[in-house]
Amino acid sequence: MRLNKYIAHNSKWSRREADRLIEEGHVTVNRIPTKEFSYDVQPGDKVAVKGKLIQPRKAGEVTMVVYNKPRGVLVTKKDDRGRATIYHKLPGKFRHFIPVGRLDYASQGLLLLTDNPTVADRLMRSDLPRTYNLKIDKPLTPEMIEAMERGLILEDAREGAHEKSAITRMEFAPFAGYAVRGETGKYTKLRVTITEGKNRELRRFFGHFGAKVLDLKRVGYGWVELNNLPENKTRYFTRKEYELLHQFLKEGKKDDQNHA
C-alpha cells in the first residue's frame, strides 16, 4: 500500500493531509525520514507521523459513521460544476470514507459512511429496509397505493429522473411499508420503507403518477436510525449498532457459502 494511503487508512489524517505531512518531513519509515509519497509500505514496516507510530488496522476491522446530509450537497468526491459535496462538509478525518449508497442533491438525511470497501458494498447490495419521510404535491391515489403494495414495472421511468440519466426502464419491488403522515387538498406527507437503493427510485415512482416529490429525507437504514442527529453532523455507530453490523456480515458470509 502506498505510504500516503497507508497513513490515511490507519489514522485520523486524510490522504491530502498525509501528502502534506510527508512533504513537510513529519513521516518516518523504520525511523528514517522519507518524502516518497509512493513508497510501498511492507508488512513489518514501522511508519510514524510526528514520532507517533501508526498502528495498522486489523484485517476485517471497520469504522462506521452516520451523517445527516443537508440538501444541496452531492454524494461524490468532486463535481465538475463546482457544487458542494459531502467531502466539503465532513471533517477531514472522514475524507477517505466511502458512502453507502447515495442521496441525490435535493434530498437529505441519513447517510452511512465506512472506511471498509467490502462492508460498503455488502450494505449497498443488501435488501435492508431504507425508510424515508417524503412530501408529494398530490393527494395519494388508489393507483399509487396499489403500486406501493404490488410493485411496478415501468418501460419509461424518466419522469422524476435526472435529465442526464441513461436509465429508462425500472422495476420497483413492493414497498416494505408505508404510512400517511399528513394530508391536505394539495399535498401528502408519507413515511415509506423500501428494500432497494435504485437511482432516484422514489422520485421516479411518484413521477409516473404525475406527482412531484417536494421533500425527501432518509430517516432509517437497516437497524440504524437518524433520530435527533443535527443536520450536517456525524456520529459513530453505537456498540449495539456494531454488534448488529457484525451479525449482518456473518449471516451474509453464510449465505455466500450456501450458494457457492
What does the main sheet amount to? 9 strands, mixed
CATH superfamily of the largest domain: Pseudouridine synthase I, catalytic domain, N-terminal subdomain
- Terminal Cα span: 30 Å
Rounded radius of gyration (Å): 22 Å
Question: What structural category arises from helix and sheet content?
Answer: alpha+beta
Extended strand count: 15
How does this structure look, described?
The protein is an alpha+beta fold. It has three domains: 3-53, Structural Genomics Hypothetical 15.5 Kd Protein In mrcA-pckA Intergenic Region, Chain A; 59-126 and 224-260, 2-Layer Sandwich (Alpha-Beta Plaits); 129-221, Pseudouridine synthase (2-Layer Sandwich). It has helices at residues 3-10, 15-23, 86-89, 117-125, 142-150, 201-208, 239-259, and strands at residues 27-29, 32-33, 47-49, 52-53, 64-69, 98-99, 108-114, 130-136, 152-154, 170-172, 177-183, 188-194, 213-221, 224-225, 234-236. Strands 5, 6, 7, 8, 11, 12, 13, 14 and 15 form a nine-stranded mixed β-sheet that branches. Helix 1 crosses helix 2. The model has no long low-confidence stretch (mean pLDDT 90).
Briefly say what this structure is.
Helix content is 26%, strand content 25%. The chain is an alpha+beta fold. It folds into three domains: 3-53, RNA-binding S4 domain (Structural Genomics Hypothetical 15.5 Kd Protein In mrcA-pckA Intergenic Region, Chain A, Roll); 59-126 and 224-260, Alpha-Beta Plaits (2-Layer Sandwich), CATH 3.30.70.580; 129-221, Pseudouridine synthase, CATH 3.30.2350.
